[in-house]
Each structure stands twice: as structure tokens, then as C-alpha cells.
Amino acid sequence: MAERIRVLIPEEEVNRKVREIAAQINHDYQGRSVHMISVLKGGAFFACELAKRLELPEVTIDFMSVSSYGAGTESSGVVRIIKDLDEPIEGKNLLIVEDIIDSGRTLAYLIEILKKRNPASVRLCTLLDKPSRRVIKQVKVDYTCFSIPDEFVVGFGLDYDQKYRNLPYIGVVEPE
Ligand code: IMP
Ligand code: MG
């Protein structure tokens, strides 16, 4: 069955906000290096857009893949590492970049395992946040581009059954 996608946040607005968040990060990290941790696959799109706008002494990026969802739209509550980081993170200023924070389970788990590897600092940056869906309340988000209502969204890296990641805007999936 085909879906209809309704535009929630237009492309220009997403791009403008990414520039704004990048400027804020540039300001906060002045003179320091940042090691971006991008969560595949969804977070990679946003991470790349953000990375291009960072102006810091050293910007590096590593990717990791965890799974918390099945093929549908419901959280399984089970998080596991599919692909670990390539490089050690000890002593580095980590910036975890996510596409969306929903229940917060994925991030809570990720932060826990990353902190055990002794980074210098850990901050979180997300493109989207669904605060009304939060189960793990202690997850503190440092940079949020957009807080959105409880709707299933796609685009800018986010998928519905692996489709629509390529959309340059954020849309809501509506059954035809
Ligand atoms: P959490 O562990 O419940 O916070 O789930 C976070 C992950 O669920 C995200 O990284 C996405 O992969 C996925 N997810 C949550 N909400 C949506 C959505 O509206 N569209 C697409 N993926 C979503
Ligand atoms: Mg994700």
C-alpha cells in the first residue's frame, strides 16, 4: 500500500534551523575539538549537514548502529549494537547526533555504554524531539532543532520501512 506524505517542516526551515544549531555549537565549543557520534542510519543525514557547518579546530565523526525498532512504527524496547564505533573515544568531547528522540531508550542506552569508555564530555544533539513520548525522563538533550507532536515522521534520514529517508523535508506519513 502506498502512503501519502504531508509536509510538516519544509526544507528551507530545516536548513535554516540546522545552520542556527551549528552556530550555537560553534559558540559553545569555541577553541575545542568535537568528535561527532552519528547513529545510523537516520542520524547520518542530519550529522553530515551539521558537520559541514561546524567551524572548530578539529571536527571528526564516527558512526554506530543500534536497533530499537522493528519494521513498523512501534518501539520494541530492546536496544542492541549492530555496529560499534571504529575509533576509541577516551578523552574526546563527544557530540551524539540523533535524528529523533522518542521514548529515549536508544539514547539512554547509548550514553551509558559511551560514558564507560571515559570521554572528556558527552552532549546530545537531535534533529527532532517528541517530548510527549518520553519514557526515560533523565535523558538530557543539549541541542534540539524541532520539538514535534506525537506523529510518525519521515524525511531527512527518517524512514518508514526504510523508505523516504531521502526526502529533503520532514513529513508525516498518512495512509492513502
Ligand atoms: P527511542 O529509543 O524510542 O527514542 O527511538 C528512537 C529511534 O526510533 C529513532 O532513532 C528512530 O530510528 C525511531 N523513530 C522514533 N520515532 C520515529 C518517527 O516518527 N519516524 C521514524 N523513526 C522514528
Ligand atoms: Mg535513529
Tags for this model:
176 residues; alpha/beta; Rossmann fold; six-stranded mixed sheet; three-stranded antiparallel sheet; 3 helices; binds magnesium ion
Per-chain topology:
Layout: E1 3-9, H1 11-28, E2 34-40, H2 42-51, E3 59-69, E4 75-83, E5 93-101, H3 105-115, E6 121-129, E7 143-147, E8 153-154, E9 170-175
Parallel strand pairs: 2-3, 2-5, 5-6, 6-7
Antiparallel strand pairs: 1-9, 3-4, 8-9
Helix pairs in contact: 1-2
The structure holds inosinic acid and magnesium ion.
Give the overall shape: globular
**Count, helices:** 3
Q: In total, how many domains does the architecture comprise?
A: 1
Strand order, largest beta sheet: 4-3-2-5-6-7
Name the CATH class: Alpha Beta
How much of the sequence lies in strands comes to 35-45%
Reported CATH architecture:
3-Layer(aba) Sandwich
Distance between the termini: 8 Å
Bound ligands, each once: inosinic acid, magnesium ion
Please name the CATH topology: Rossmann fold
Structural category is: alpha/beta
